[in-house]
Structure formats: structure tokens, C-alpha cells
Automatic annotation (TrEMBL):
Residues 32-284 form the Cgl0159-like domain. It comes from Kribbella sindirgiensis. This is Deoxyribose-phosphate aldolase. Gene3D superfamilies: Aldolase class I. Transmembrane segments: none annotated. Coiled coil: none annotated.
Amino acid sequence: MGELTEIRVRHPERVAEGWLQRRTRALVGDDGRLLIVAADHPARGALGVRGDRMAMGSRADLIARLLIALQRPGVDGVLATPDVLEDLLLLGALEGKVVIGSMNRGGLQGAAFELDDRFTAYRSADEIATRRLDGGKMLTRIDLGDPGTVATLESSAAAVTGLAEHKLMAMVEPFWSTRGEDGRVANLLDPDSVIKSIQIASGLGATSAYTWLKLPVVDELDRVMEATTLPTLLLGGDPTAEPEATYASWGKALELPSVRGLVVGRALLFPPDGDVAAAVDHAAALVHGVTT
């Protein structure tokens, strides 16, 4: 970590050079599936894993876990904000990997303005294309009672259109959301709410040709996935269930034709037993049939 800081002090130009020189790959391989490790939670102030509210507070620890994950067979790439991606880039960990840039991180967890989720990381498709990333991801929470929703929808639509113009993946993560009496935002995960969020997200932008969805595993997922023809990656969320139950739910969901893989962060990077490699290998076996 000290060497990374030294580079940032003396040679910040290496970041731009690294993006231009990075070895890239096709988005998907022969099986048409993806296993992406997510690490964009910290930029929204969401540091908790299970009962530990500061689990993701150490950048050194997070980078170490990401390095383990990205070296495992079957891991296609990573989703993160510029700061995390640039650390990994300078360490040479992004060679031949799919890299998705997280775009809107302005809806800080617990904030009064949480649902006005502005684009404060990668702000445009042009910024992503210039760095030769493979796509951009936008969190798109929909609360009919919060005026911030419409700004988020408009910005997400612009990003979808812009990314498509560059022939890059637009990864849209929609939720039907509500703010409780305590002021906290909650995502509604019943099937009907997820279906409504899918329908709205699918219509964002001037074209859906390059749009992928990032969705939670919920009840009646077979009915939920009938809501779209868009390729879908399933998210992990905060891992509160036992790992074996989580893996079983992923395995069943991956049998659906429109489900094309996983985008998982905390469940793989912070498994209960601390064995990141084993957790990632289990997910890779589910997605690609890769075993070590």
C-alpha cells in the first residue's frame, strides 16, 4: 500500500498510462456467462458486512481480498469505483479482466438525499470509454414518494444511451424502494416489486441493445425473470444467510435462461470462515463449472 501511495505522489500519470496499456478481453467467453466481483460499496458509505459495521473500512484489507479473488480460475472481472480500480490497475491485477466502472455513488447510505443518487464516480459513458473499461453500472432505486428518483432515472437513461453508443455494457441495478418512518431506505424484494423495477429499468435509454440487469435473488425468481429478455447477473447483497443456502439459491437461479452469472462482493470477499479463495471457487463452479 505504501508503494501505491508513492506512485500516486510521484507518478500519477501512470494511472492513465495503465488504462491505455491494459490487456483487455471479450466481454463473455464461449459459455456466455460472467462472474464479477463487486467492490463499489465503500464509496457510498456502505461498509458493513453482517454485524461488523466497519468491515470494509480498511483499503489494504479490501485490496488483499480482491487480489485473491481476481487470481482464482473462473473470475471474469471486477466492478468498482475509480479509486479501487486504479489501485488494482497499478498492481497489475486487471490484465485480461472485464472491468465495470461504478457510476452513481452520490446516494450515500442513510443520507436524507440517498435516493437522489447522483453520478459522482464515473459520470459519463465517455469517461468509461476513454479508459477502455468494459461497461458502466448504475444503481437505480425507484421510490414513488421521493423526488430524487426522477433525477436518478434521467441520469441512468442518459448513461444507458451513452454506453450503447460506445458498444459498452450498461449494467442497471434497479430496486423498488421506500423510506420507512425511521428515515431509512429499504428495497422491497417481493416478486411483484422486483418485476416493476425490471420493467422500468428495461425501458431506460434510447436502446436496450447493450443493457444488462443486476438483480437480487428473490422468491418466485422464475416468474420474476419472465419480465425481461435482457441478460441478467444476480447480486449477492449483505450475506446474512448461511453460505450453503446462498450457494444453493444461486445454483437454482443460474438454471434460468436469462440469468447469465453473478456480481457478488461481500458474500465472496468476506465469507464467515475468512477463506476468500474457497468462496470464490464455489461461485466459479456454479457459474462456469470451473473447479480447482
